Amino acid sequence: MGKKIRTEAVDHLFDGILSLKTKEECYLFFEDVCTINELLSLSQRFEVAKMLMDKRTYLDISEKTGASTATISRVNRSLNYGNDGYEMVFQRLEEQKKESKE
Predict the structure, then answer these.
(1) Which terminus of the chain, N or C, has less C-beta within 10 A?
(2) Are residues 24 and 63 in the same domain?
(3) Could you tell me one molecular function GO term of this UniProt entry (predicted)?
(4) How far apart, in whole angstroms, are the C-alpha atoms of residue 22 and residue 78?
(5) Co-location of 14 and 64 in the same domain
(6) Are residues 42 and 54 in the same domain?
(7) Number of Cβ within a 10 Å radius of residue 72
(8) Same domain for 58 and 76?
(9) Which residues 6+ apart lie within 8 Å of 45 measured at CB?
(10) Both 42 and 84 in a single domain?
C-alpha cells in the first residue's frame, strides 16, 4: 500500500467514513467533504471499474459513463496493478446481494 497516503489525517478521515451507518449518512458526509465534481469523479471511476470487470469495451464505458479514455486507462491500471481494492468491494457487494435474496 502506498506509504505516501498513510497519514494521521487520512486515518482520521477513514475512521469517519467507517462510522457512517446508512446511505443517507454517506450523502450528508460526502456532500460536506467533497465538491460535487469530486464525488461525481469518484462514482464515475467506480462505475468504470465495474464495467471493466464485466469486460465492457472502452468505447461502451465512455459512452455510458462519460469517462475519458485516460480515466478508463487509469482505472484499468488500478484493477491490474493496484491493491485489489475494487475487487474486494465488488466481491462484498455481490455477497450482500446474494444474502439479501436468501
Answers:
(1) C
(2) no
(3) DNA-binding transcription factor activity
(4) 27
(5) no
(6) yes
(7) 23
(8) yes
(9) 67, 71, 74, 75
(10) yes
Same domain, 28 and 42: no
Please state the domain count of the chain.
2
**pLDDT tops 60 at residue 6:** yes
Q: Taking residues 41-48, what's their average pLDDT?
A: 97
Q: What is the pLDDT of residue 60?
A: 98
Same domain, 19 and 40: no
Q: How far apart are CA 29 and CA 15, in angstroms?
A: 13
The answer to whether the CB of 45 falls within 8 A of the CB of 66 is no
pLDDT at 4: 83
Longest Cα–Cα distance of the chain, Å, equals: 42
- Model confidence band, residue 102 (pLDDT cutoffs 50, 70, 90): confident
Give dist(CA 93, CA 99) in Å, integer: 10
Shared domain check, 39 and 28: no
**Residue 5 grid coordinates:** 497516503
Write the burial class of residue 32 (CB in 10 Å: 0-12 exposed, 13-18 middle, 19+ buried): exposed
